[in-house]
Amino acid sequence: MGSQQSRPRSPSTVSQTNTYYPSQQSSSWHHPGDQPPYHQQQRSQNPYQREYPLPVLMPSDGRVKVRKNSSPSTTSHTNSKPARARFKPLRAFSTFRFDHNPVFSPPRHTSSTTAAASTAGGGGAPSDGLPSQQQAANDMTSGGTTTLSTAVHPLAVNEEPTTGQTSSFNSNNSANSHQYVWIAGRKYNLVPASSYMLPCDEDEVSRLHLLHFMVRFAIQGNYLAPVSEVLRKGAKVLDMGCGPGAWSMEIASEYPKSQVVGVDISPMFPNDIKPSNCTFHQLNLHDGLPFEDDTFDYIFMRFIGMGIKAEQWESALTELARVLKPGGWIELTEVDAELYRVGPNTRELNQQLIQVMQMLHIDPYAGRTLKSKLEKISCLTDIQTTFISCPGGQWAGKLGQLALQSWQAYYHALGPKICRSVNMPFKEYEDKMESCWREADEYKTFENVHFAYAQKKAAPA
């Protein structure tokens, strides 16, 4: 990943077995074994028992090969290990178990490394790193609140926004004492130390669900790290930046012996209807995580690069590594802001977004540098990287339609900041966006989504 970061990556050579081609979405299946693709199988299978057919990949020759009348290869690898060894089958769903108990246990952290981030009352935590429900109830009734009157959202420069405030049970983390700002009809967070530019309203929840389904469809599963066995046996999992909690709940329902903790700066996750082995907490990573050292077997963090400034990546990953058990795995997913094979309007809009991100000290190329970011954390080893090229537009079948819808929602949410930065009326911006989506089909536009995972070194004997 390191030496080829300034150009579109080469599509891998993909064998003819279990290959996804968008042009086959409405045609018959032509594989030698007459195995129908996933979208044709699912109607005849129990939706709670199905498994995704996985692509069989061969190494790339390192050259860019533009494919005509089809998507860029959905998966390209930068490692020497066989690709099929890193793709693990994963059933999409199994039967949910619902927990209707309204009281859930807030996380507690007593490590000296981030003591300043949490000053809640003492008491030993249970073996799972979470306090009892009685402790949770006490925290909910005794905790104070903090008003963040000085917070300024990057989208709210030179405005007098209407704000609202909400507080949750744990006031020691700044994510839990909240103000919001409404801009162009969208609701945004006001949280100190956060650069996150995207909204936190119902439209954003829908976009994040769509993004989850798009990535799951593209990689034919929910993760790439080699954690299937530990999840089956029972693991403690942290979903950092869980959003509405789609990934957390799917993993929790798929692996009922595991305990999944979803964390996000915005409380857009469900509180009631969720698997009983899945809990959600409103926390800010930049304040330090209120968990004991070596708590989790697996940490998953996806698409929160907008909320991490370039200079904050090392401290954020160090904090995640702290709560990861020796021998545990951390997996990251980030998309590069740069789009490839673009028309003139798309190029202009894309460059404006990149400039705004750089102005706010957000790395627009965080995805392609995940490996180097992980290499800075001394306790991590066995770093593996890969990426997929996600096409956008009707030309690329189901995956392209999902990607295009995701782009549309993403650029619409970012419109206020881009318009302010380039002094463009929002109506003109919307018209330009519409021309971009037409260009996506004409130029066969795609983006690269990058994945990386690493293992924490075992504790010294």
TrEMBL record:
<dbReference type="InterPro" id="IPR041698">
    <property type="entry name" value="Methyltransf_25"/>
</dbReference>
<dbReference type="Pfam" id="PF13649">
    <property type="entry name" value="Methyltransf_25"/>
</dbReference>
<feature type="compositionally biased region" description="Polar residues">
    <location>
        <begin position="1"/>
        <end position="29"/>
    </location>
</feature>
<protein>
    <recommendedName>
        <fullName>Methyltransferase domain-containing protein</fullName>
    </recommendedName>
</protein>
<feature type="compositionally biased region" description="Low complexity">
    <location>
        <begin position="69"/>
        <end position="82"/>
    </location>
</feature>
<feature type="compositionally biased region" description="Low complexity">
    <location>
        <begin position="110"/>
        <end position="119"/>
    </location>
</feature>
<feature type="region of interest" description="Disordered">
    <location>
        <begin position="1"/>
        <end position="147"/>
    </location>
</feature>
<dbReference type="GO" id="GO:0008168">
    <property type="term" value="F:methyltransferase activity"/>
</dbReference>
<feature type="compositionally biased region" description="Polar residues">
    <location>
        <begin position="130"/>
        <end position="147"/>
    </location>
</feature>
<feature type="compositionally biased region" description="Polar residues">
    <location>
        <begin position="38"/>
        <end position="48"/>
    </location>
</feature>
<dbReference type="InterPro" id="IPR029063">
    <property type="entry name" value="SAM-dependent_MTases_sf"/>
</dbReference>
<feature type="domain" description="Methyltransferase">
    <location>
        <begin position="237"/>
        <end position="328"/>
    </location>
</feature>
